[in-house]
Amino acid sequence: MSITSFPEDFVWGVSTSAYQIEGATAADGRLPSIWDTFSADRAEACDHYHRYPDDVRLMKELGMAAYRFSVSWARVFPEGRGKPNAAGLDFYDRLLDEVTAAGITPYATLYHWDLPQALEDRGGWPARDTAERFAEYAAAVHDRIGDRVDTWFTLNEPWVAAFLGYGSGVHAPGRKSAADAFRAAHHMLLGHGLAVQALRAAGAEKVGLVLNIAPVMTPAQVSDFGRELSEEDAAAVARIDALANRQFLEPALRGAYPAELLPVIDRHAGLGHVREGDLETIAQPLDLLGVNYYTPLVVQAQPSEPADPAYPGSEGILFCTIPTAVTAMGWPIVPNCLSLLLGRISREYPGLDLMVTENGADFVDVVTGDGIHDVERISFIEEHLRALRAAIDDGARVRGYLVWTLLDNLEWSDGYQRKFGLVHVDFATQRRRMKDSALWYRDVIRRNGLAETRPRRPTLETVAARAGVSRATVSRVVNGESSVSPEVRTAVMRAVNELGYVPNLAARSLVTRRTNAVALVLSVPRQGADALTSAVVQYVTSLLEGAGKQITLMLADTAESHRRIAAHVEARLADGVVLLPPDRGDTLAERLSRTGVPLVLLGKPPIASLVPYVDVDNAGGAVAATEHLLARGRRRIGMVCGPTDLVTVQDRLAGHRTALQRAGLTPHLAPAGDLTRAEGAAATRRLLTEAPSLDAVFAATDQLAIGALQAARELGRRVPDDLAVVGFDDVDAASATTPALTTVRVPVADQALALARLLLSRLEGRHTTSVVLPTRLVVRESA
Ligand code: FCB
Q: How many CB atoms lie within 10 A of CB 293?
C-alpha cells in the first residue's frame, strides 16, 4: 500500500453538532439549552432542522460513508426529566431515515455541550443527578432511533464542557469555579458510564466516547519531540497532560484517576463527589475511542505564573505561543502531532479502536464568481491525513476520519465568524455552496486516499489565463510595477482575488528571474542587545540560506539608509524582510509594511499593527522576578525602570506593577535615562536616598542591575542581605558579577529562529500571527 492509500475498510465522513447547525430552537416543544441562555448570537444557525434533506443530499453527493451528528437533549427532555418529548424525537427519526436512505452510516453523539437549561437550574453537571438524567436520556434516544444508529458516542470533549463551561466560564453555562469544573468533569464521566450501561442494556452494538486529546510539549519539542526536558519542564508537561488528557482517558479506559491528579482535585473540590463504585461504573468496556485533534498544547515551567482558570492546578506553568503557521482561529498548525497522539494512545491503551472524529480548520474564505478556493483548508486536511496514514503504518488502529465540519456554522462563543465548513453557508439566505475542499475531499473518498501529487495552488499561469494577459504582465501587477495600465491592473487583480492566488516566492522569482533574496535590516542594536543582534544575524542567515534564499544585509542607521532600504524593497529586490527596528519609534517598519512585501519584526512595535513580530514575554518575566522577591520576604521593592518610551520597558514595568498590586504593595520607581550601567547606578542611588528602607531593587535590564550592584556597594549596602537585586535579560555578564545576578532569561537563539521561521511561513503565503516566547527566572546569589 502506498503512503497515499488507506486501509480498505477505512471510514470517511464528517461531524456536526446539534446546537451549531439545527436552529429552530423553539420548535416542537424544545426549550432552551445552556447555550441558548449563554450565547449572544442569534440561534438559527444553518436551519438544518428544516433543511436536513438538502444537507444529507450534499453529503451523499460528496460520497460520505459516515455522518457523526449530535442529538439535542433539550429537544428530547425540554424540562430535563419526566416523559420524553415525542415531537422532538421525531426530528431525529426523520433525519435518520434520510441518512440511512442515502447509504450513509450514522454515528450519534448524545452530548455535544447543550445541556437543557432546566438541568443547569437544578445544579448542572456539578450536581450528581445530572449524570443519572443523562443515562435516562440516552435510553430514550436509543428507544426511538436505536434501530438505525450504528455507533453511539456518549460525550463530546468533556474537558471543554467541564473546564471552559464551569472553570474559565468562556463557554456555557459560564460559571467560574474550579470546584464546579472538577465536579462537572467527574459527573460527565459518571454519566458516560451510566449511559454506556443503559445503551448496552437496550441492545446498542457499538459504544464509544469522544475526547479532545492534545499532545502536550514544550516549545522546543514542537520541532524535536524526542528532546530531553529539564525536570521542571517535564513536570509542567505531565501536569497539563494529566489535567487535559489523562483526567478522562484513565478513568474511562482504566478505571482510575491519574494518581498525581487526585491531590489537585482534592485541593480544589475535595473528593467527596467521587463515590465508592463510581470508577467501576465509568470504566465500561468501549468499542471505539473518538479522538478530536486540532492543535497541540505547548507549555513550559514558569515559577511565578498563576494558574490558568481553564486548568486549575496549573500554577507555575506558562502556555506558550510557537512560531508556526496558524489557522484564522490562531491555532498553530502541527500535523505531525496527530501521528504522535494516535501512536501514543495505541501504545498506552492497546487493543482499542480509534477514530479521528474531528479535525479541520477555520480559514477566511473568499466567495468568488466561480467558487470558494480554500486551498489552505485543503492543505490542512491533506497534511493531517498524511500524518494519520503514517500513524497507521506504525501500528495505530485508526478506523476512520471525520472532517470538522460539513457546514460553516455557529462556532460556540466565537459565533458565526469562524468558517470550518467544507460547505459555505450564506447566513442571510441559507444558501449552501461547496468549497473546493468539499470537492477535493470527495475525490479523496472516491480513491480511498490522497492523490500522488499534492493539490496545486493557483499559479501565475492560471491567473494569466483568467485575466487574458501574459504571465509577465501578471507578474508585473503582482509585483506592484507601475508600467501597467489601470484597466489591465484591475483585470489582473480581479483574477487574483477570484482564484485566491497567493503570490509565492518560487513563482515570482521564476517569472521575474529575480534571485530569492531576503533583506535582513539591522538598526543600531540597543545597549546590551548585541548578543541578540548577532544571534539573529547568525540564525536568520543560516535558516534562510538553508531554504535557498540569499540574504542581503542592510544597516538602517541614518535617514539616508532608510530611504535606500525602502527603495530597495519597493523595487521588489527582496521577497521578504526581517527588520530589527530601532528602540524608538521610526517610520521604517511602517514604510516597509506598505510595500506589501512580507515583513517580520523583532520586538513588539509601539503601535499595534498586523505586521507579525517575535518578542518575549516581558510582562510575565517581570511578574516572575517581582514575585520571586516577594517570596523571599522582600516588601519594599524599588524598580530601576529605564526610559518608559521603550515598549520593552513599558511591558516589564507593567508586569512589576501587576505583581506588586496582587500583593497589595505600591511601586517605587526610578526611571533611568538610558540602559547603561552608569544610569542604573545613578537611578539606584536616587532610589536609596529617597527611600532608604528599600530592601530590594528590580532593574529592567541586567546592565541597569549591574549599575545597581555598584551603587549598593558604594552606599555600603550588602547584597542580598540588605538589598536584593534582580535584573532582566541574563546577558553573559550577569553570571560574572559579585554576587552573581538573579535575572530573567530571555531566549536569544529561539527568538532568532522564530523570526526566520515566521518569515518563511509568510513567504509561503501562510497566515501567521506574532510569536511571544516565554522567559524564565534564573536564581543566583543576588536575590
Ligand atoms: C471542537 C468542538 C466542535 C467545534 C470544533 C472547532 O472542540 O467539538 O464543536 O467547535 O472544536
A: 26
The per-residue pLDDT for range 452-502, each reduced to its tens digit, is 776 566 777 778 888 889 888 887 787 667 778 888 888 888 887 777 676
DSSP 8-state assignment for residue 455: P
228: which residues sit within 8 A by CB, 6+ positions away?
Answer: none
Is residue 774 within 8 Å of residue 616, measured between CB atoms? yes
Domains belonging to the chain, first-starting first, are 3-448 (3.20.20.80), 460-509 (1.10.260.40), 512-614+750-761 (3.40.50.2300), 616-748 (3.40.50.2300)
Atom of ligand 1 nearest to the CA of 412: 10
Among the ranges given (332-346, 414-428, 466-480), the one the predictor scored with the smallest mean pLDDT: 466-480
Q: Which ligand 1 atom is at minimum distance from the Cα of 212?
A: 7
Q: Is 359 in the pocket of ligand 1 (CB under 6 A)?
A: no
Is 592's pLDDT higher than 70? yes
What cell was used for 622?
517581570
pTM: 0.73
Task: List, in sequence order, every residue forming a beta bridge with 105; answer none if it has no partner.
Answer: 66
DSSP of 153-175: EEEE-HHIIIIITTTS-SSTT--
Residue 551 grid cell: 540574504
- Pick 562 or 139 by higher pLDDT: 139
Q: Positive or negative, the Cα torsion across 241, 244, 249, 251?
A: positive
pLDDT band at residue 444, thresholds of 50, 70 and 90? very high
358 is catalytic: yes
What's the Cα-to-Cα distance from 425 to each of 23, 318, 433, rounded to whole Å?
14, 38, 7
How many residues belong to the chain? Answer: 783
For atom 2 of ligand 1, the residue with the nearest CA is: 157
Q: Tens digit of pLDDT for each residue in 386-413?
A: 999 999 999 999 999 999 999 999 999 9
Among 320, 452, 121, residue whose Cα is nearest residue 772 = 320
Distance from residue 21's CA to the centre of ligand 1 (Å): 12
Residue at grid coordinates 537585586: 725
Q: Cα–Cα distance between 779 and 783 in angstroms, integer?
A: 7
SS3 annotation, 646-685: CHHHHHHHHHHHHHHHHCCCCCEEECCCCCCHHHHHHHHH
If you search the block for the grid coordinates 431515515, which residue do you land on?
Answer: 97
The pairing of strands 743-745 and 776-778 is antiparallel
Q: What are phi and psi of 216, to 5 degrees?
A: -110, 135
